[in-house]
Amino acid sequence: MITLARPLSFHFVRPFVLLTFVLSALCLLRAEVARAELNTRNALVTLAPVGGAKSVEMDAQIFDVDVIESGDNTTLGGRLTFKIHNTDRFSKTSLLLGFPAWGGGAVELNDKNFSQFAISTDNSPIQPDWQTLPIKLGNESRNVRWLTFPFSLDEDERATIQVNFTLNLGNDPLPTIAIAQAPAILWKNYVGSARFTVHFPWVTTPEQFRYSAPSGSTFDGKTLSWLFQEYNPDAPVVLQIVKPRIWREIVGTRSILAQGPNAKAALSLGAQFAALARASVAAYQSASETDPSALQPPLELARLYEAKLRGDFGAPGDENALRSTALLQWQRVLQLTPSSGEARDALAQHAFVLAQLARHSGHYATALSLLDSARAAGSGKVAAALLDGEVRANRIGLTAQQMDAGQWPEVLAAIDAGLLGSEAQNDQKNLQPRFSSVQARVSIADDLEQVVVRIVPYPRASAQHEQVLRQWMTSLGRQLNATPLLDNDAESYTLLLTTVLKLPSPNDSSLPPELTLIREALSPTDMRITHVDNIFTSDDAFQAEYVLGDSQRVAQARLEEIERVLGTLRAPAGEETQEQIRRVRSGALDFYKTGWQSLLSSSAQITWRDSELDPNPPTWELRAGESRQLQTVRTTYQAGPIIASACGALLMGFVLFGAFWAIARRSRRRAMQM
Question: What is the pLDDT of residues 569-579, one digit of tens each?
């Protein structure tokens, strides 16, 4: 018996035919990917100062890049934004800015592929010129072409420079988006913040990315971003993608395959795609965007990313980016269902792991934000002790970063709060100078002395500095029966005092040790002011002995103790956090040492006036540690006695002349009579 086989329905055959086509296309694409090389010779290069900038910082740089399908080519368009700041508050600055054609390593800018590169500031266009100039990045120096323009900034001025660009990446099936950052090292200090954002023309998946660097990016289905704070530019940002036209055709084919003959077949096909082509992400993302209040799309996306992290679809390419994306989806799930234990546990664990990664890469602020998210999740999967330890490690790392950036008030506040332990607190309490310079001027006239003292706080003025000074001034005023006045500007305090000649107590406990020189300038070991009247002159004599040794001994003792403690911190610690504590503690001690060394240059100027009208009173300059005997005599001739004597002498002359004249006349008469 011959039985005719019933032909299969075309509706059931079609999905499998198309599936075979897509898989074949993916195999061919993967072959092309395997052969592809990263092309970084058609890159965007950051703005940089030619020859460097001593006073100008880059506060922020923002790269907003749109991926555009241009027929068979791939085009980049968008805007580059650079925010710069002249940190010199007293001087204007002019510098030559530009975009070098070399961005370090194999990264180059090819101006022939730009159809637009319009530079402007405050909506005013800037006309640049090409020049060949030197540039040094790392240990390598080159003479390269720069697209340059002059730029000026007033004192403490901030400015924004923008570039609207269009760049053709060609028809490469795997175009490379490269952004060179190394030239930004030529600005003063680190870049304040940096954001690199790549916008895709439609919702896509990380499957379109062949290569992505550096790690730590975030992706929401349509936008891939890198965000950095206190950015030390080094390696370029590189993203290699499947070009939009090819990817659009693959996505379109998958969309056709999704139109199965019934729901069960469509779900089965969707499962195969999730396992073989990883296409479910885009579908769930699209559904989530269509209905943001729906729970199922972000939940399924989150679970799909979890499967990818477990390696269900093979080894994950960029595990950090994948974990970040999973975290975003779990956050959305938790917003929609705050009671979800699954979301709380996953969110806390991912945030904790990402925080650890951020800490190890030096992004402490990002890590602390992630740890806040992990703690807010309230999951038992991450113990509070672990969170506390990680928070402390990040704050210590952030303190070390602030120390490297010279942000000493923040570092000292962290030490004072006990973040770096009791030993660092004791160092600060016993060895940190609150003032770094004392310049005293003492003017003595009759029985009064006028005192003007300029005191420089360390590292900068604060309420605590003023409180210490006022406590001592209150005590000093009681001792001298005077009212000291205190003035301050942005950089120093000025003490004004007028008092009768009276020595303050050498045992005043309220006197900060850094101000010992003031007590020494007000307390000479011996002072004598005498006045002697002679017949025709008067002598005013000033004699005093000043010993400024204690001020030097105080500073020298602290310096010796600092050196002793530094000697115990020479050996690096084995554990990362302990090493950072050691490094910050050593850096703080060096900072304290600088303050005490500066105090050794303090001085006192002593002036003696025997008269308010004296235009050139004798003045002596004394340095900390110096001992000197001061003495001078001022002789003044007395006009009254001198005039009286002269008049008496003149009168006597007249008398004698008269007497001689009378005798001579009498003698002449006698001679005539004879």
Answer: 999 988 888 99
Task: Output the DSSP codes for 226-256.
Answer: EEEEEE---SPEEEEE--HHHHHHHHHHHHH
Written as one letter, the residue type at 147 is: L
Closest CA to 305 of 291, 319, 294: 319
Angstrom distance (rounded) from CA 355 to CA 639: 89
User: How high is the pLDDT of residue 22?
Assistant: 41
Q: Which helix (H) or strand (E) holds 296?
A: helix 296-310
Sign of the alpha-carbon torsion through 410, 416, 419, 425: positive
Neighbours of 127 (CB within 10 A): 6
H or E element that contains 354:
helix 341-360
Residue-wise pLDDT for 294-340, tens only, equals 888 888 888 888 888 887 666 777 888 889 999 999 999 999 999 99
DSSP bridge partners of 445: 448, 609
Per-residue pLDDT averaged across 499-526, rounded?
Answer: 86
Which has the closest alpha carbon to 469: 486, 451, 448? 486
Specify which of 37-41, 410-414, 664-668 reaches the highest per-range mean pLDDT.
410-414
Q: Between 644 and 534, where is the model more confident?
A: 534
d(CA 7, CA 39): 51
As a whole number of angstroms, the distance between CA 437 and CA 624 comes to 11
Query: Whole-angstrom Cα distance, residue 394 to residue 564?
Result: 29
Residue 76: name the closest of 205, 207, 172 by CA.
172
From residue 378, alpha-carbon distances to 95, 333, 336, 554 in Å are 52, 15, 16, 53
Domain boundaries, the chain: 44-246, 431-523+548-626
DSSP-assigned letters across all residues of 520-577? HHH--SEEEEEEEE-SSEEEEEEEEEEE-HHHHHHHHHHHHHHHHHHHTT-SPPSSHH
Q: Is the bond leading into 7 cis (omega within 30 degrees of zero)?
A: no
CA distances from 166 to 67, 121, 160, 180, 579 (A): 10, 18, 20, 17, 47
Those residues with Cβ within 8 angstroms of residue 556's Cβ, 6 or more apart along the chain or in another chain: 600
Quote the tokens at residue 400.
Answer: 């070390």
CB distance 151 to 127 below 8 Å: no
Average pLDDT on 362-368 reads: 93
- Distance from C-alpha of 69 to C-alpha of 199, rounded to nearest angstrom: 12
Confidence of residue 265 (pLDDT cuts 50, 70, 90): very low
pTM of the model: 0.52
What is the pLDDT averaged over residues 183-195? 92
Tokens of 336: 């929609």
CATH 2.60.40.3680 fits 44-246, yes or no: yes
- Give every CB contact of residue 398 below 8 A, 6+ residues apart in sequence: 364, 365, 368
Residue 457 predicted with pLDDT over 90: yes
Q: Are strands 114-121 and 124-126 parallel, antiparallel or unpaired?
A: antiparallel
The maximal CA–CA distance of the chain, rounded, in angstroms, is 210
Burial class (CB in 10 A: 0-12, 13-18, 19+), 626: middle
